[in-house]
Design goal:
By secondary structure, the chain is an alpha+beta fold. It is built from 9 helices and 7 strands, in the order ααααααβαββαββαββ.
Length: 336
């Protein structure tokens, strides 16, 4: 689509315009008035170029340039009129004209040719110019929308990170508060995770396997603060190491399991599954629902849903919500 206007330009200048010219007796005019014919030809090619790269674009660039474009149009009409008013010859009366009232008796054939070529040149140049400007406006609109989407995605990421760090630091605080021997190793693991967050924040996509390793580390940290009442099942199976995903995309769903689905006195199960086969990512979580209302509940999940809608429109399905006494997340993304 991008090169179509250029192809039309070439076709017009090499095929359409020359074919329109040969309709008229150009050979005879060129033999008698070569300078005039060459000047007219140069003028129409110049007119086509001016319309394509100045007149039509200026119509879309504000009032001042639109006024200048209208001035170009009036100037082109004036110059064409001057060419048409040059007297090359005075035709002799023809026997075939006797008794016939011509509609425009004072317009000669070469003048008709000039105005016909003028209309053809104007029509083609404006048509191609408008097509080009339509493509330019469409590309500009796509660029603006892409920048807007990118800004929204960055906003969702910025909202997710503090949400995640707050809950992880809260877990670490509990480990140190109870003098848990795993507190220091957990802190080192947390520092490693923060390093991953820092490095991934400058990238739009990261290897899926790195994101999966990050989830493993997060689950390991959270496991240390839980007692025997909570069982955790995690299943990760990735067949294609070349697949890439946006960073910090899935951990919010995992974090939600530990934030809302554990109890120190009631038995509960957290199930996390991340599988990839044939370029399709399947991610599922399940945790028990405990009737505890928290401020900002599920705000991270809502941000993730919006982020998925921006990143994978039409390429993902997601189901989030309660099923009986369980809260489940089922996400499928076509990555390849």
């Amino acid at each position: 689509m991008r090169n179509i206007p250029l192809y039309i330009d070439i076709v017009f200048c090499t095929i359409v315009f020359p074919m329109m010219v040969v309709i008229f007796p150009v050979e005879r005019w060129f033999h008698n008035f070569p300078g005039y014919v060459i000047s007219v030809g140069i003028w129409f090619y110049l007119l086509y170029a001016v319309n394509r790269w100045a007149t039509v674009p200026y119509l879309f660039k504000g009032k001042r340039k639109a006024t200048l474009a209208l001035a170009f149009i009036l100037l082109s009409i004036a110059v064409t009129y001057i060419f048409s008013q040059v007297t090359l010859y005075t035709p002799k009366p023809s026997i075939h004209d006797i008794g016939i009232d011509r509609l425009f008796p004072n317009i000669q054939q070469y003048q008709q040719a000039i105005w016909s070529l003028f209309m053809v040149t104007e029509t083609f140049s404006f048509a191609v110019g408008l097509l080009t400007q339509t493509n330019v406006q469409r590309a500009h609109r796509r660029a603006v929308e892409a920048e807007r989407d990118k800004a929204e995605i960055e906003l969702y990421k910025a909202q997710i990170k503090p949400h995640f760090m707050f809950n992880t630091l809260n877990s670490l605080y509990g480990l140190f508060l109870t003098d848990n021997p795993n507190a220091l190793p957990s802190l080192e693991r947390f520092i490693s995770m923060m390093r991953y967050i820092h490095t991934s924040s400058t990238r739009d996509i990261v290897p899926l396997r790195e994101e999966a390793d990050y989830i493993r580390q997060y689950v390991a940290i959270q496991t240390l603060r839980l007692n025997e009442m909570t069982e955790i099942f995690i299943d990760i199976d990735i067949s294609d190491d070349s697949l890439m995903v946006p960073p910090m995309l899935l951990v919010t769903f995992v974090e939600n399991c530990f934030k809302h689905g554990v109890s120190p006195v009631e038995h509960c199960i957290i199930s996390i599954s991340l599988k990839e086969h044939g370029g399709t990512l399947s991610f599922n979580t399940s945790n028990r629902i405990f009737p505890v209302k928290r401020i900002g509940e599920h705000i991270g999940i809502e941000n993730c849903r919006k982020r998925l809608g921006q990143l994978f429109p039409g390429r993902h399905t997601i189901s989030v919500g309660p099923e009986g006494d369980l809260f489940k997340v089922a996400l499928n993304i076509h990555l390849s």
